[in-house]
Amino acid sequence: MKLSIATALLAGFVAVPAFAGGHASGDAEAGEKAFNQCKACHAIVDADGNDIVKGGKTGPNLWGLPGRTAGAYDGFDKYKKSIVAAGEGGLVWDEASFVAYVQDPNAFLKEVTGDSKARSGMAFRVRKEDDAANLWAYIASVSPEPGS
């Protein structure tokens, strides 16, 4: 598991991040369906306050996630220390890091931060890598291009 997380991280830091506009490797339509499991904790609300997906507020809004620094969504104050530390250490969400994170949030943060006690606030785990890639494709498809 650690090797696959490390490989995913390396790919994410070396590769050009995958964003909306057809560059994500997953299937956005399948990801939209899979997002039903995420909306218990997460919403997708655009910059104008329009709901793309109504959801919970336990987790941060996922609109604009591609290219966002981890643990740094303005207005969300429930981040755990480990995800903030990962962002402060340079983690910016791209497809590889997102896919690795949602499959095992705690292991991902331990690897990224180097802290064996790192913990995520996200208890849910996406079981299949394809499902995680599809979720990324969907989130990227409804988000603006980074920097816009």
How is this structure best summarized?
This protein is mainly alpha-helical.
Describe the protein:
The chain is mostly helical and 148 residues long. It has one domain: Cytochrome c-like domain (Cytochrome Bc1 Complex, Chain D, domain 2), CATH 1.10.760. Helices cover 40% and strands 3% of the residues. The protein has six helices and two strands, in the order ααββαααα. A two-stranded antiparallel sheet has the order 1-2. Strand 1 and strand 2 form a beta hairpin. The protein is globular, with a radius of gyration of 14 Å. It starts with a helix and ends in a 7-residue tail after the last helix.
CATH superfamily: Cytochrome c-like domain
Sheet-strand content, in percent, reads: under 5%
Radius of gyration: 14 Å
Large-scale geometry? globular
Secondary-structure blueprint:
Elements: H1 2-14, H2 28-34, E1 44-45, E2 51-53, H3 81-88, H4 95-103, H5 105-113, H6 129-141
Antiparallel strand pairs: 1-2
List keywords for this structure.
mainly alpha, 148 residues, globular, single chain, Cytochrome Bc1 Complex, Chain D, domain 2, two-stranded antiparallel ribbon, 2 strands
